[in-house]
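call fold target=Kinase-like protein
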Amino acid sequence: NLIGRRIDHGRFKLIDILGKGGYGVVYRALDTNSPATSPEYYAVKCLRKASAGPAQCSEVKLHVKLSSNPNILTIHRCFQDRNHIYLVMDLCTGGDLYRAVHGDKVPRAYHMDDAKTKTAILQSIDTVSACHDAGIFHRDIKLDNLVCDEGGLNIRLTDFGMSTRSTRMRVVGAGTHNYLAPECTEEQLGASYSTREADVWALGVLIFHLINGELPWDDASPNDPYFAKFLQNPDSLMRYNPMSRDAHEVLKKVFVGSVEERITLPKLRAEFEKLDTFY
């Protein structure tokens, strides 16, 4: 716990914890160089050097490479001391999209609001497109890894701990299981999969979650009753959910088992751009 510590020659004071993950702790930090009448705050991710292996080093390099893109959470400074590596990033006051969808900090930001939902979906697609255009594949797309402002918009992607430049990877059981494509589930351990198409599937799950406030299934596996029902009847996704028929038809183009037939990001954006209602 580094709360109260000053870093970067005393410039940043760590105030409280914003979140914890497998690769570090994120703090809200005060820039002590900012005026007392209008203090400036940042998010500071702290990685312990003792546990900073190749994956963490790769995370830093890939995030820094993408940082100048407006769809990616900006890294302003990256420095280290004897024990830690620090990433100073923009502080997004709305928290992550999971909180926005479920009404933690932003009261149900998108619920039954077509205009805001459309903007959030297009911005979310743009964050993943920014990665792919740079030849980087995120591999952990989910509501928790996109952050927003207090209105639930100005959405940006973060947490590149699982990202890669490889277009194909072996299934090793990593990732958030609710968002994994069928070709990435534990039944496929050891098999090769396309990181690009896996990101598209995860983005589809994220969009479904954003619209409906819940996940479509626990696992994209025939052993999951909801996914098995979807395989038998794709229209089952409409049951008990407020999602419009048009939004449902677009998402069906994402949830295709054959990666060759799965919709591409540019086409997915174009399809959602045409929609006026999501509920």
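return ok
Residues 95-274 form a domain with the Transferase(Phosphotransferase); domain 1 fold (CATH 1.10.510.10). The two ends are 44 Å apart (CA to CA).
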